[in-house]
Amino acid sequence: MTIKVAYLTFDDGPAKNTKKILAILEQYKIKGTFFVIGNKSPYGIRMYRRIKKLGHRIGNHTYTHNFSTIYSTKGAFFADFYRMERYLQRVAGIKTRLVRFPGGSNTRLGIARGGVKTIRSIKAELKSKGYLYLDWNIDSHDSNLPRPAPGQMIQKVLHESKFNKNCIILFHDFSDNTLLALPAIIRGLKRQGFRFGVLSTHSFNYQMPEGK
Asked: How far from each other are the two terminal CA atoms of the chain, in whole angstroms?
């Protein structure tokens, strides 16, 4: 029997809906993977700690998520990246080897800002330092403009999941429609025979090919 695993991932938090997303995951007894950015607010600090306490996985999504800055040079990227790493360690005692590039590892905006060589050099240094970057093979499109309706998100994710035995699904903490779509997506994935996992240095991974 083929084992099918879905990895629910949430980018750009802690954001306004992080607490509610955690409640949904807790309701369904599922662990997720959160790629977080810098949030100095008391709420943000509570959310880093709550994500950790509830047993979810955390990845570094850079501190500022500012494409113009972080992709300008390799040095600029790592200054921002290590700022996030230090911040997570200080406020929540979190040390992670997981990385997600803002916009994905083949981001057109990043390439336009710093060039292909800069992106490649960042990837090479991450690897040499023992970090692992992870993209996604299903995009819920919850960050697209105009925002898709919850039903459109549900249909897209559950259609594409039929063609993958391992699904890394991209959501965003700030999306109101993700809150509405997530329970139905979870139930639909369960009906398709998926179990749920968290990303790690040993889990299934997907890295976008250059130029896709």
From this structure: 32
Whether residue 123 is contained in a domain is answered as: yes
Assess if residue 36 is contained within a domain: yes
Residues 6 or more apart whose Cβ sits within 8 Å of residue 162: 192
- Write the secondary structure of 134-182 as one string of H (helix), E (strand) and C (coil): CCCCEECCCCCCCCCCHHHHHHHHHHHHHHCCEEEEEEECCCHHHHHHH
Q: Is residue 207 part of a domain?
A: no
Give the CATH number of the domain where residue 159 resides.
3.20.20.370
Does an H or E element contain 83, and which? helix 74-92
- pLDDT tens-digit map of 45-93: 999 999 999 999 999 999 999 999 999 999 999 999 999 999 999 999 9
Longest dimension (CA), the chain: 47
The answer to whether position 212 is within a domain reads no
Spatial separation of the C-alpha atoms in residues 130 and 23, rounded to whole Å? 32
Q: Indicate the helix (H) or strand (E) that contains 21.
A: helix 18-27
Per the structure, the count of domains in the chain is 1
What range does the domain containing 172 cover? 4-196
Q: Which of 138, 176, 123, 145 is nearest to 9 (CA)?
A: 138
- pLDDT tens digits, residue range 136-167? 999 999 999 999 999 999 999 999 999 999 99
Prediction pTM value: 0.97
